[in-house]
Design a protein that fits this description.
Elements lengths: L1 H10 L5 H25 L4 H12 L2 H41 L1 H30 L10 E4 L20 H6 L7 E8 L5 E8 L1 H7 L5 E2 L14 E4 L1 H7 L10 E6 L8 E7 L13 E4 L8 E3 L6 H12 L15 E3 H5 L3 H33 L1 H9 L4 H34 L3 H5 L13 H28 L3 H10 L5 H36 L9 E7 L8 H17 L3 E8 L8 E7 L11 E7 L3 H4 L4 E4 L13 E5 H8 L8 E4 L13 E7 L5 E2 L2 E2 L2 E5 L7 E8 L6 H12 L5 E6 H8 L1 H35 L1 H9 L4 H37 L7 H28 L3 H7 L1
Parallel strand pairs: 3-8, 5-7, 14-21, 16-18
Antiparallel strand pairs: 1-9, 1-10, 2-3, 2-6, 4-7, 5-8, 6-7, 11-22, 11-23, 12-14, 12-22, 13-14, 13-17, 15-18, 16-21, 17-18, 19-20
Helix pairs in contact: 1-13, 2-3, 2-4, 4-13, 5-11, 5-13, 5-15, 11-15, 11-17, 11-23, 12-16, 13-15, 17-23, 17-25, 17-26, 18-21, 23-25, 23-26, 24-27, 25-26
Amino acid sequence: MKLLKGIREYLRVPRSARRIERDVRDELQMHIDLRAAELQRGGLSAEEARRAALEQFGDVGDAEQFCREADSAGESKRHRRSVFDELRQDARITWRQLGRHRAFSLTAIGTLAIAIGATTAIYAAVHAYLVRPLPYPNADRLYQMFTAPTRDRFPNAPRLDDVDWAPLYREFPGAFTWDLDGFTVAGEERPVAAVGAWVPETYFSTLGLSPAMGRAFRPDEFDAGAPAVALISHRLWMQHFGGRPGVVGESVRLYSSDRPTETEIVTIAGVLPANTWHINRFTEVLRPLPAPRMPYILPLPPGMTRAQAEARIDAIVRPQLGGTVDPAWRMGLGNLQDEYTRRARPVLLSLLGAAACMLLIAGASVAGAMVARSAARQGELQLRVALGASRGRLVRQLLTESVVLAGIAAGAGVALAVALLRGVESRLPSWLGSPIPSSTGALDPGWSVLLLAVAASSAVCIVFGLAPAWILSRRSIAGGLRRAERGSGGGLAPALRQVLIGAQVAFTMILLTGASLLVTSVYALGARPLGFTPDGVTSAQTLLPESRYPDSVSQVRTVNRLIEALETDPRIAEAAFVFGIPFGRGALPMPAYAEGAARDPVTAPRGGVTIATPGYLELMRIPLRSGRTFTDADDARATKVAVVSADLARTLFGGREALGQRFALGAPDGSSHQDSSLYTVAGVVGETSKPVAGEELPDIYLPYAQHPQGFMGVVVRARGDDPGIGEVMRTQVATVDDALALEGVSPLPSLVERDSATQRVLAGLLATFGGFALGLTLLGLYGALSYMVAQRGRELAVRAAIGASTDSIVRLVLREGSRTTVIGLVTGAIASVWLTRILASRIAGVQGGGVLSIALVGLVLFGSALAALAIPAQRAARVDPAIALRGD
C-alpha cells in the first residue's frame, strides 16, 4: 500500500470518479446533518428535524451531480497545472545541474550515446535480416524443400530422378523451381557472362514479380518449341546494353551453358525492376522453363502447418520410390527466410548480445556515477526535504535528470546509428555472406525501428537512473543530515555501487572472452598454412558454350589454345584452367572408396574434387610429395588418373603406398548412386586449406582432358604487380574467340581474405565493445573506490591514529574493491563458458578456447582492475590523521 501511495503521490494522479462521488456525498450529508441538528435545537424531534432539513435542502441528486461535475473539472485543471508547473521546475533545475557539472553531463551523455548508437545500428541490421519479412507476398508461408529431413546430408538418400512431381504441384499451387544456368550474352562491344536461370510461370506469380519495361512471359512461351524469349536484369540492361529504351523486342545471341541445344537467338521480352530482390543471384537472365522439375519453393496453403505439409509430400513421393527407402528418410521443409539468413543469424545475434551487454555496462556506469553524485548532494536534498519538499518531489526531480540525460543521449545515439548504418550498408552483405533481403538492397530501418531501439535503450538508462532515487527514498532526514556532516559512506549507496560495478565486471568479462575467442580464431585462420601461394595469382571465370564447342575434343583444344594465348603475353608467367578455384566456386565434395572396399557413403572419407589442366598445381605452388602431376598425355584415351593430397592418401589406403592404387568416387549428395570408374593415383601432393561446400576436405585432383567442363575458372600468375592484369586476360582470350566472356576477375588473395571476413568483422566489433566496456569498468572501479576513500576518511584516519600501518590500510582498501571484482569475474566466467560453446557451434571458423582462454581473460581483467584500484588505495594510505580528524 505504501508503494501504491508513493506512486500516486509521485504521479500526482487526480482523484477517481468514485472518490469524488464519495467525497461529494459525505460533504452534502454533513450539510444536511448540521441543518438537522440546528432544527432539533429549535425544538423539533430528530425525525422531524431531518425531514425538514431535507425539504429545505432540495433535490439531493441534482446537488450531487452538480458538485461531482464541478469537482471533476477542478481536479483535472489543478492536476494539469500542478504537473506542468512541476515539470517546468524540474526541467529548469535539471538544466541548471547539467550546466553546473558539465564534465559529468558530457561524460554520461557521451557514454550512453555510444552504447545507444551501437545497439540501435545493430538492431537495425537484425531487423533487416531476421525480423522484416522478405519482400514477397505471404513471405511467412514460403518454405524451401530439401531432399532430406534437414539441410544436412542424409546417408543412402534415394535418387529422385524418376519421381513424378505433378501431384505435388497440384497439392501446392504456386510451387516453383529453377534451373540455374550460365549465359554468355554477345552482340555488343564485348561479350559478357551472365548468371541466370530457367523459371516456370509460378515463379513470377508466387513472388509477385513483373517487368519494369516490356512484358512478362506469355503462357504459351513456356511450351516446348515456343519462340525463344528472355527477361534481363536492370543491371545487365544498364551495363551491357547502355540502358537503351529500345532494347525490348531486340534479338540477341545468348549462349547457354547447360542447354547447348537451345536456340541462340533470343528476343528480349522485358527488363526487371532495379529494386527487385531475388532469393539467389542467378537472375541476370531469366528464360521460360518448359517442364518443371522438383519444386524448390513451396507456398503453404492457409491453415496448413509445416508438419502437415511434410506429411503430404511424403505421401506423394515415397510410394513412387519403392520399398527400399530408409524409413528415417523423408523430404523436409525450412522457412525460406530462416534458410536464407542461416549464416547471418548467429553473427547478428552475437553482435546484438554484445551491444546489449555494452548498453547495460554503460547504464550501470552512469548509474554508479549518479549514485555517487546523489550521495554527494545528500545534504542539499535532505535540506530541501526539511524546508518542505516532499520525498516524492525529490524522487521526481532525480528521475527527471535521468530522463533528460537519456533523451539527449538517445538523440545523439540515433544520429550515430544513422551514420554507422550509412557507413556499413555497402559492406554488410560481404561481411555476412548474403545480400540484405530488401527490394532496395538497403538496411532502411525506418523511424519505427529506430524509435523502438531508442525507446528500449532509453528505458535501460531510466531504470538505472531509478537507483539514486530509490536510495534517497530509503533515507531519513536526520540520518541524511548527520551523514552529510560526517561524510560517512554508510547506507544503501555503497552496496548498490558494488552491485553495479560487479555487473559491469561480469559483462566486461563476457565481452572480452568473446572478443578474445574470435581474435584468436581470426589469427589462426590468418596463420594457417594454405598449402599454396595466392600472391600474384588472379582468377576469373569463363564459359565455353556447347553450341560452339559441342564435344570434349573441341573444348580441350580451345582450353589449350587459351592457355597458350595467355602465356604468350610477357606480363603473364603461367596460366591454367580449373574447375574449383580455391575459396571460389566449383569444387565438389565426394566420398572416395578404395578399390575392393565397401562403398558406404556414411563411413567413406570425403574429398574436394578439383578438375585442372596440366600446370595448375605448379602455378599454385602446391608441393609434390611423390609421383607426378598431370601432363598432356592424361587425355580421354589414357587411363583415368588422379592426384590426391597426402591426408586423403593416408585415410584411403592406410599405411600402403598410394601411388598406383585405385579408387572410385561416389555421388556429391551422399546418395547410394556410385560411379563405376576407377581412378589410379598418379601423384601425392601437400595439403591445402580451403573450404569446400562449407567444410575443410582433403584434395582430389582430376585432369581436365579426361573431365572437360564448359564452365571453368582461369588462373594466371603475373610476372609482377600489374593492376591491369584483368584487361590483359580479356584481350588474350579475345584473340582465340571474341565471343568468350571473362567475368569475375579477382586477385586470389582477396578471395582468401573474404573467406574470413565474417570472423574478422565480428572479432573487431567485439574487441571494440570489449575495450569500451573495459574502460568504463575500470573507470567505475576507480571512481567507486575513490569515493569510498573520501567517504570513509574519518575511519581510515582513526585506524592510522591507533597504529595501523600503511600496508594494512592499502590492503583494506584493495580488499574492498577486489571483492566486488572477483564476484563479477566469477559470474562472468560462468557465463563465458556458455558463450564460447555457442560461438563455436554457430559461427564457422570459430573454435572454443576452453578454460585457459577464459582464465587468461580473467587475469588480464583482474590485473587491470588492481591497477585502477591502486591509485585510491595509495591515496588512502597517505591520509594525515590529524588533518582528517580536525576536518571532521
